[in-house]
Batch of 2 targets.
Target 1
Amino acid sequence: MLRRRSDNLIVRVTARFVAPLIQIFALYVLFHGHYSPGGGFQGGVMVAASIILLRLALGHRATQRVMVTSVATMGAALGALVFAAVGAVAWRYGGEFLDYGVIPFSDEVAQRRSHGILLIELGVALACICALVSIYDDTLTSAGRGEDRDD
Amino acid sequence: MIEFFVDHYAHVSLSILIGIGFFGMVAKRNLIKKLIGMSILQASIILFWIVTAEKDDATIPIIRKGDGAVDPTEYVNPLPHALMLTAIVVSVVTSGVAIALLVKVYRNYGSLEEKDVLGQM
Amino acid sequence: MIRLPPQMKIAITLLGVTVFGTSLLYAISAVPDHGAVYAPAHRDTSPIGSTTPGTYYLRNAYADAKTPNVVTVVLADYRSFDTLGETTVVFCGAVCVMLLLRAKFREWR
């Protein structure tokens, strides 16, 4: 039922109009998280909300090109992996796990930490987007034959 | 007496919210309603932590001018905010897992009423 | 299952609500006032003499990480292990729902 596209033209057009605006604002929230309220979790959840809005309005099958369900689960793993990898890179430069003060992004230690925080937030945002979209898609799988049934 | 409620209005209203959530978890016989009660309980606990961070005449914990000594009484306590940020995301994911389990229960037993499910077990 | 008469159920519910509410109100009476600056969480040192994390983060976050948003610094720098575990929890939740519901994994269940 929820996997079908909406019958209402206004709902479909409005969703297609609003979703990119949500995504742009989510990017602002994500990348401006150092200077204003925001960060990886908030931006990621907003991107996931825009994708779920498209899925609700345009149907499950048509919006697979936005994010494929199986890719979403892998993306959640990749986000957690990016986080851990940034921590492991610190080992390479002789620091402790997740101590980004030693990674040579720039000359100043405090500035390095700022860049490390940005990378971490990117990993968190990727994990958040993909995990929420994957949970939404899996919850709507039909009890019948395949997972691709649209009604 | 009135003073107590004026000074602690946030805590009193939050304890009412905790009571509603707890009542929903314990007394309701529908599994979805139990889940809604759990969500209300989680939200009330999160709000309780946020209330703990409050200071009078303080603003959000974003340092204004940069260099120089920071006066901690100008900003609210950042620790509860950071802790509850993770708690909110975890609560969303646990709700997702709970809904998935409820979908499985509905497919197996054809009902979400506790009475029917227990009767078929 | 034990069958209780309805009056009994109402009495038990009222008793539970009364006990729960009274204990919560009693606990609230010991909590510092709403927004009080003198609350133990906002002091510089805790009752046993160690540094309180909240004020420490506020004083040192900008000097340590050149990031004005203290919550971001606490989340991703001071407590990044916490956030790593939390991201793992998000991933585990996605995998859990996938194994429970996705048709491809039906024979695994």
Note: The CA atoms of residues 18 and 45 of chain B lie 8 Å apart.
Target 2
Amino acid sequence: MKEEILNKCGNSTDIIIRTINLKNNVIDCIYSETLSSSSAITNYVLKPISELIIEDKNIVNTTIINLIKNSLTGSSINELQTIDEAIKNIFLGYTIIIINNKNILSIETKASLDRGINLSSIEVSITGPKDSFTENFNTNLGLIRKRIRNNNLFVKSITLGNESHTKIGICYINGIAEKSLIKKVMEKIIKINNDIIIDGGYITEELSKSTFLPQVNQTERPDLASFALLEGKVCIIVDNSPTVLIIPTFFIDFFHTPDDYYQKNINTTFTRILRFLAFLIAIFLPGYYISVTSFNPTAIPTNLLLNLIEQHTIVPFPAFFEILIMIIAFEILRESDIRIPNKVGSSVSILGGLILGDAAVSAGIISPIMIIVVALSSISALVFSYNSIVNLIRYYRYLILILGMLLGIYGLFIGFGILVINISSTTSFGFPYTYPFVPFIKTDVLDSFIKVKNKQNKRNPLLTKNRKR
Amino acid sequence: MKKIYLIIFITLLTGCTNYNDISNIAVVSSIGISVNGNNYNVYVKVLSSNQENEENIYTKTCTSIDECFNELSSELMKKLYLTHMDLLILSNNLSKENYNQIFNFFLNEKSSRGSFTTIIIEHIDNKILETNTTDIKNMLSLSLSTNGLTKDVTLTDIIKDILNYKISYIPFIENKNTITVKGYKTIYDENKILTSEESLAINIIKNNIKTFQIMLDKNVYKLEQCYTINKIHNNNIEINFYCKYYGNNKSDKNNLENYLTKIITSFTQNNKNNYFKYLLYKYEKNNNDDIKYKVNIDIDYKQNIGGEIFE
């Protein structure tokens, strides 16, 4: 039997077999040394078995199975029927115990292969909790359960990925989340037929319609996921993914951070208005600059216009190409900054941001005002920690830039119209993206771009309209 | 497909041809136009983007204003951009035809906004163009608040006046040794330089004045919170002017009222009053030239007690 297992695993070197002889009985312990903890194997498997004293030479096989079962101190012990089951368990981190080449037992000896609970690195909070999700399914679920100690927090698990066998957990609060929403999410997830699910991004891609606007939110913060569950949303935990997916999501969600609920309302209102302004600046500033300088210099005060002309005279390219070069250079800089190791990151930032920018101006390739415009626009986009909204800003910035270059201020208004139409025509799992403005929900409008008062309960009236409150 | 056609159609409506790279434009600050026989002399002050050389004045003599601007554009290799223009200086010797051509030019020029100050000057030279436009504007507003002489008038105001009354009042500036505001000059149907009293009268009639000073017998009287209400009934036009005067002698009130009544009555008798004819036509549908005027001046005398010691 053990030879068959080894053969099926391709005689992989990390599959270890340890054989123990007890009188006339042969006990084979098989495990993967990469997925299992050696101390767990020693303490919960090998030590109890080797300490067994069997005096009767003619002991029955069932008796020895019971003896071994009783001696094992592990928390989860199962009796398996087939070799395929045994192989699957080996790769889940279990140790397989084959008794006299007939019976198979499995005992959990998983090694902890995650990095532990770390500080959240993307969605940083000043005053709120600092912990973030990890790559471990159970840890992530525990971090949510720690915040919602309620038996109504239901978790439905399924395995996805024909080859990867990734564990997916669908969490919701029974009694708050709409049954129709849960059903819809479950149906969509079951339909996913990928070979491999490495990260939550795979699920997001499958659940989203083809639009610029993100319909599924991803968070690395357990407090945000807990808030979402209490609102009536559904969270999806994907094993090996450090982010949890939140369904459905609304446009206004990207302007909110967990910090908003840990400080005074007036401060939250100020920062939210600032974020909205940053959103508009990030999208419209380069396009506005191009349209004003190329079509409507009338709108520029005389002294500023003269200043711009002086700066632009030395540049050999039209303003549009100049700004395009700068935006693409910034995108490359941002992408390299994300990918390169932290140790050299700061030097690349200095080289790229300061030296390259200064040299480009000195060489007469770029005008200083263009650096200000692109830097201001790009920095404004960095106000948002959600990658999906940063991507939305990026695409719309290019669109508005082209429209501004072709049609001037008129193009800007067309672009704004397209953005509004896009937002208002999008739905996330059947719920309008423009909540709480359309449909208008007065209580939630007071916690949208502004925050006037704290809600007594977190329930979202749109998501829980069929639930008793 | 209909949507695509609609987008293309909207795009075509927008006029992509308006595209102008800012490095290809010359920002014009002020323009001077005079006539010499059948030719126009056009003076253009272009603001320089180079900080060392602040402004350049270019002169051209041609048969039409458009021609002058085209030639100057070719010379500078840049499009003359008039949106940031502050001042239009016209010479004293322009005829009705010349004014028509000038107004047509600015109305047809896409980059012109018409919101620039317009003045008439005795003789145009580089010196007046070199003068800061803000200084000239300040001089005009000061002349209104001190002597009630002239208001800052834009080209749009002038064109509006000509379309309505066939006459417009433009500030007239003398530049012999120094630059001095003399009052208004009428253009179009009438071509006349008004005296300072006539200029004050038209400012009172048109309700341009809020505060001003009058010099009588070497005494200066300051009038404040002034306003005018013109009443029209049949052929009668009643000019009612109200002001507050803070003084120490009540008899000054009568002197001021008599003086202002005299200058307004004199103005209505000695000048073509197209302004009133238009008002009559507009409100009474009356084309009668025999207009009867009634002037009421009401100076509200207030005892000035601030800092005064009474015996």
Note: Chain A has a mean pLDDT of 86.
